[in-house]
């Protein structure tokens, strides 16, 4: 009887924020790890330093994703508008 989805404001939609954060973290982890692997192949000879550059790149990716996700969850809605997570959430809500 008229049961439909309840409309949740975008700044309070936690599921969409988690989905966007997981997506962002995965992409940044993979891309920065690949960048670290490429830099390791280009600049280093030792396998240990090559693995270290991959780990450094992965750490950069996870750290930057953590920063954006913490802004999306902790900051007031006016500050989350610049975050890439909130942009992803608003784009998925438009569809």
TrEMBL record:
Superkingdom of the source? Answer: Eukaryota
Asked if the Swiss-Prot or TrEMBL record annotates the protein with the keyword Transmembrane, the reply is yes
What Gene Ontology cellular component terms go with this record?
MICOS complex; mitochondrion
Q: Mitochondrion among the record's keywords?
A: yes
Q: InterPro entries, per this entry?
A: Mic10
Q: What is its main location?
A: mitochondrion
What's the protein's topology in the membrane?
A: Single-pass membrane protein
Provide the alphabetized UniProt keywords. Answer: Membrane, Mitochondrion, Mitochondrion inner membrane, Transmembrane, Transmembrane helix
Q: Where in the cell is it found?
A: Mitochondrion inner membrane
Q: What does this protein's UniProt record list under function?
A: Component of the MICOS complex, a large protein complex of the mitochondrial inner membrane that plays crucial roles in the maintenance of crista junctions, inner membrane architecture, and formation of contact sites to the outer membrane.
The similarity annotation says: Belongs to the MICOS complex subunit Mic10 family.
Q: What is this protein called?
A: MICOS complex subunit MIC10
């Amino acid at each position: 009887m008229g049961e439909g989805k309840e409309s949740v404001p975008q700044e309070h939609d936690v599921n969409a924020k988690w989905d966007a954060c997981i997506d962002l973290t995965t992409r940044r982890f993979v891309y920065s790890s690949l960048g670290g692997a490429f830099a390791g192949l280009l600049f280093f000879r030792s396998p240990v330093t090559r693995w270290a550059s991959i780990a450094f790149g992965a750490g950069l990716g996870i750290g930057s994703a953590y920063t954006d996700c913490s802004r999306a969850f902790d900051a007031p809605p006016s500050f989350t508008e610049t975050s890439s997570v909130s942009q992803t959430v608003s784009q998925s809500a438009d569809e």
